[in-house]
Design a protein that fits this description.
binds 2-acetamido-2-deoxy-beta-D-glucopyranose, LysM_dom_sf, 6 strands, disordered N terminus, LysM_RLK3/10, 28% helix, membrane, 18% strand, single chain, alpha+beta, six-stranded mixed sheet, cell membrane, 8 helices, disulfide bond, disordered C terminus
Length: 240
């Protein structure tokens, strides 16, 4: 292997090292709310009559095959009305420092922010969030244009438990309680669900709950150590 020439000799190395150490001491811009997000979160999509995976998946910018590993389906053409489909997506940082993801949706005739949020996206977003994320006034949404669908997400909380790093975003439906949601997602503790969702009234029939869930291998994913990346970078520079 050819060793790359060090452009500025040892001085360059020392400068890089000092810069890296300095950077590691600075707080990241949005430390409190959003550091980097996580590569995987799931959206819980409530299945209505006539839904098929191949029409739901494109609402989230993916193909039906991407959805299959996260759901136990006998056939993608047949999903039970009233069941829920888990849709994988990347949970990133919004401009305001909160966690979220923006999907693109092409408007159709008759669309309003309310029906896009409630019917097309099954309450994974809200009409208010759509009004904030799009420049079109609510009464004048053109047909056939892309609009931003903002969905909130969550990657876990060290202060609650480091055993859980994969969450499903679960819009609460009328009749749900913390216990019915826990049972529906196969999660044993409704106490932990209350801890993860402090501001939510579980019996109000609305709101989005963050629920720890298993990956396609059937395991809970532990929370990733957030500081390991920067530590590795410094070591890399030091030893190179
Ligand atoms: C979405 O929320 C509205 C208002 O709370 C509710 O009436 C509707 O049934 C919900 N839709 C779904 C698919 O859960
Ligand atoms: C969607 O969001 C992007 C980035 O914030 C913005 O530039 C664009 O205008 C938004 N789209 C609409 C329809 O408002
Ligand atoms: C939760 O919502 C239900 C139904 O809307 C309401 O009756 C109840 O008072 C609410 N509880 C709290 C603590 O706000």
């Amino acid at each position: 292997m050819v060793r790359p020439r060090e452009p500025a000799g040892r001085g360059g190395l020392c400068f890089a090292l000092a810069a890296a150490v300095f950077a590691s001491l600075l707080p990241l811009p949005c430390e409190s709310a959003c550091r980097e997000g996580c590569d995987l979160a799931l959206a819980s999509y409530y299945v209505s009559e006539d839904d098929v995976v191949s029409t739901i998946a494109p609402l989230f910018g993916i193909g039906y095959k991407d959805v299959l590993p996260y759901n136990s389906l006998t056939s993608p053409d047949f999903i039970l009305t009233g069941s829920r489909l888990s849709i994988p997506f990347r949970c990133g940082c919004n401009d305001d420092g909160s966690l979220g993801h923006t999907f693109a949706y092409t408007t159709r005739s008759g669309d309003t922010y309310v029906n896009i949020a409630r019917s097309r996206y099954r309450n994974l977003t809200t009409a208010d969030a759509l009004r904030r994320a799009n420049s079109y006034p609510a009464v004048l949404i053109p047909i056939g244009v892309p609009i931003n669908i903002t969905v909130a997400c969550f990657c876990g909380d060290e202060g609650i438990s480091s055993d859980y790093g994969l969450f499903v975003m679960y819009p609460i439906r009328p009749g749900d309680t913390a216990e019915t949601v826990a049972a529906a997602v196969g999660f044993s503790s409704s106490t932990l669900l209350q801890e993860y969702n402090p501001g939510i009234n579980f019996t109000s029939g609305q709101g989005i709950m963050f629920v720890p869930t298993r990956d396609p291998q059937g395991r809970y994913r532990p929370l990733k150590a957030r500081s390991s990346k920067r530590g590795a970078l410094i070591l890399f520079i030091y030893f190179s």
